Structure prediction request, 621 residues.
Amino acid sequence: MYDPSIIAASIINGLMTGAIYSLVALGLTLIYGVLHIINFAHGSLLMLCMYGVWFLYAQAGIDPYLALPLVAAGAFCLGYGLQRSVIGKTSHGRDEIILLVTLGVSIIIENIALFAFTANERVVQVPYDIDGIDLGITFLVVPQIAAFVASLAITAALWLFIARTYTGKAIRAVAKERQGARLVGVNVDHIFAVSFGIGTACLGAAACLLAPTFPISPQIGYIFVLIAFTVVVLGGMGSFVGALIGGFIIGVTESLGGLFFGESLGKLGISLIFILILLFRPTGLFGQRM
Amino acid sequence: MKKNSTFWLFFAVLVVAALAAPLAIASTFWIDFLTLTLFLAVLGQGWNILGGYGGQFSFGHAVFFGTGAYLQVILQAKLGFNPWAAIPFAILGGIVIGAFTGFLSFRYGLRGSYFALITLAFAEAFRVLATSADAITDGGQGIYITLNQDPTKALATLQFGAGNGYYYCAVIITVISLLIAFWIENSRFGAQLVAIREDEDAAEAIGVNAFKVKMQAICLSGAITAFGGVFYAQKFLFMDPNIAYGPVKSVEMLVMPIIGGMGTIFGPLVGSFFLHTLGEVSKHAAHELVGDRPGLDLIVYGIALVLILALLPNGLVGLIRRLFRREVSRA
Prediction:
């Protein structure tokens, strides 16, 4: 049998990773909640942001955590532009067509990265990557703690932004009833693009938090798009709380799956949760509301 | 009736041209190019039956391709099957997986994007299983078919080495897939499938058993795609979890018919031809500038996909038809 302290350690590690998954999923759920677009390019946009972090680190020696505001701002502009110039322009018609358009965007981004950087893994090495806190049962390194705290802080900030600011109010209005919002003078196209931009900015932040612990390669977009979809579907499409809790559940599942079934088979847990939730509770744990 | 005679005309011209092509083309590079083009047209036709005619967009069609290919390799490498004897089992595998995934997805009423997502998850689940089941698949390192070096046994072992054998095999499976698509366009089953694509609720209201028709479509689609997997296995004599169930094949399979024209007989073939030509041209252009690098052909596919979705919802076949009609009406 497994020692309870090993299981506890595994759960703690899973929660740390889960916080980043929450942040990634938060962007996806925001885009879905407002635009009703299932953004398949989410994973590849995260990958692109991670290359941005690596580029700043390798070329200018900027610490990934200091780069966070810069990368998030860049990601916002990228997302805003992408929605305004590509996805918004082509998103007439059925939702599967939009899904295909975002798939096309993700193919382009992923292979541009493959073409430009090849399949070799890039690593961002911070000098404090083995410093940390000893909890007795497990040892948490600085990048883990930073990712956990920052993810929660960004989630809280985003929630405040949506709840308290005028733009946040407009986003909520568009999510609920886009025709009504248009009638009272909200610039819906702008709000669409802003939401897409914020969703992408979440990825920019997540990229900075992931970079010190996660080797970067063009293929990781696919890994993350599956995880992000699983989190969002589990939590409920469009639900903020759902994304947060779903992220933790998936992080812990992945960690425990690896412990009990080994590195390779343990990954099955995520796909299984995804399939089961889609089949039996497609609205997720926290329903359809934002 | 007139529509059908046009089909047979095109069909006959294509078959003759395809059979004669090796006489005119001496370069093995271009024969190989045509072989892979036809092979992907077959996979695309598999996707087209479910996605194009039935409107059920699968993002994980590799699950059928990989199962067909894996069975073809494993039955030979582990159980000593003759390649010919393995083919029916490989195709049956595609049908069984189709029935399994289809039953779960359609029974629980998954439509549109949700269906796309669950197929993606199935493919990923199979990728993980194939990587983990070392005893059956030899895990991540992949599994090989023993190479046959005796040219007299080429047909018995279905290994044709460098000759034109693979090309002719590709022509044969392309012809079969085209005939199946032709049958679908002209059958009651096909009409019901298209009705479901256009409006599932309305189709049910006029008495179409949507669940049954979609199940038949996914099984047929799985069979054709698994057949394509058999071809891949015999050509490359190797399979690993990423080739079998990874996202690249799933993407290629759906891009071909969407570019060519979803729900048309020749769409997958036209799309495959167009994209491969475009990919090859851009590879040559890039070769001059920066040397050989992976990814370029898929960049081209992605751009083509977005442009076609934005500008030509009926694909290239739709465009050709429109131009043709304009010429006819002008004359």
User: Anything to note?
Assistant: Chain B touches chain A through 42 residues (CB under 8 Å). The longest helix of chain B spans residues 210-236. The mean pLDDT of chain B is 90. The longest strand of chain B covers residues 143-144.
